[in-house]
Design goal:
Helix content: 40-55%
InterPro entries: P-loop_NTPase
Order of helices and strands: HHHHH
Protein name: ATP-binding protein
Structural class: mainly alpha
Mean pLDDT: 93
Number of helices: 5
Radius of gyration: 16 Å
Organism: Streptomyces sp. SID7499
GO molecular function, one term: ATP binding
Number of domains: 1
Keywords: ATP-binding, Nucleotide-binding
Low-confidence stretches: none
Length: 98
């Protein structure tokens, strides 16, 4: 998804600078609980199993990705990032259709 977002933003003329701020499990859990307690209508429930699953599958960006030197192609079977994004994110409107 990060590669898609970078590509789509740059295709529209935006300058992309990725900043990664690691967060430990306990801090993340505390922040999620605070958000749920103070703004439940602006978020969705995320239980411990969901949090662990997300953390286990998250791939930290490497230096090449952070610097913008790494450019990933869309997954196999996709003509480009716009097609992938339109399928992945139902609310996405392809720039050419806007």
């Amino acid at each position: 998804e990060r590669s898609a977002i970078r590509w789509l933003a740059e295709a529209e003329g935006a300058h992309v600078r990725m900043v990664y701020l690691p967060v430990d499990h306990e801090t993340q859990r505390t922040r999620i609980a605070h958000r749920w307690a103070t703004a439940a209508e602006e978020t969705y429930p995320l239980d411990e199993a969901d949090l662990r699953h997300g953390r286990e599958h998250f791939e930290e960006p490497g230096e090449a990705e952070l610097s913008g030197r790494e450019r990933s192609a869309p997954p196999p079977g996709w003509a480009g990032w716009p097609e992938w994004a339109a399928d992945r994110w139902p609310s996405f409107t392809r720039p050419s259709a806007a």
